[in-house]
Amino acid sequence: MANNCHTADIAWCLMYEQKLDIEIKLAATQANTLRRKAKGIEIEEGLKSPDPVKQLSAQADLIEWQSGEGLLELAILGAEQEIATIKSIMAELEPQRKYAHLSILDAAQAAQREEWKLEFQHRIENYLLTRGTIPEDQLQAMRSHPDFESSIVPFISNVLDKISTGKDKMNLLTNNRMLING
Fold first, then answer.
1. 3-class DSSP state of 41
2. 117-128 burial string, b = 16+ CB within 10 Å, else e?
3. Are 111 and 96 in contact (CB under 8 A)?
4. pLDDT tens track for 39-72
5. Global pTM exceeds 0.90
6. What pLDDT does residue 55 have?
7. Please, are residues 36 and 65 in contact by the beta-carbon 8 Å criterion?
């Protein structure tokens, strides 16, 4: 996911959001592990009950309970590994960030302008190389960017020039988004 971003700050923010999401799910899974243990105790008590209905119900619960054996532990291990991977990616991105000195919300807001300018430039290259034109709705979105006249219009002209002259056309085809370590 981070490789689909154009700036280190937005990639870092995306990873941070993903980390939070997984941490929430991990906590819920850990809580379910405790509930599962409690259910196991409840089943044991039901199996010892003198009431045959409670025993049958406990036997059915035991079958269901046994079918999930090990799944929560596996989910916890997977989530912990994913969090470690995300933290590693965030650590790689950290030195590349322009807005690391800001809070997470302020950094995300500050990086949006550059991220969208680079995203529009990426789209411009793709549209002009594949269709020869920029779709009207995309051009309208680009016009609303604060750097439209100062940066995006000159970029469009530059791409059109490269396509028409064949100059640096291969560079247009091989341009990649922001890559970690890249």
1. helix
2. bbbbbebbbebb
3. no
4. 999 999 999 999 999 999 999 999 999 998 889 9
5. no
6. 94
7. yes
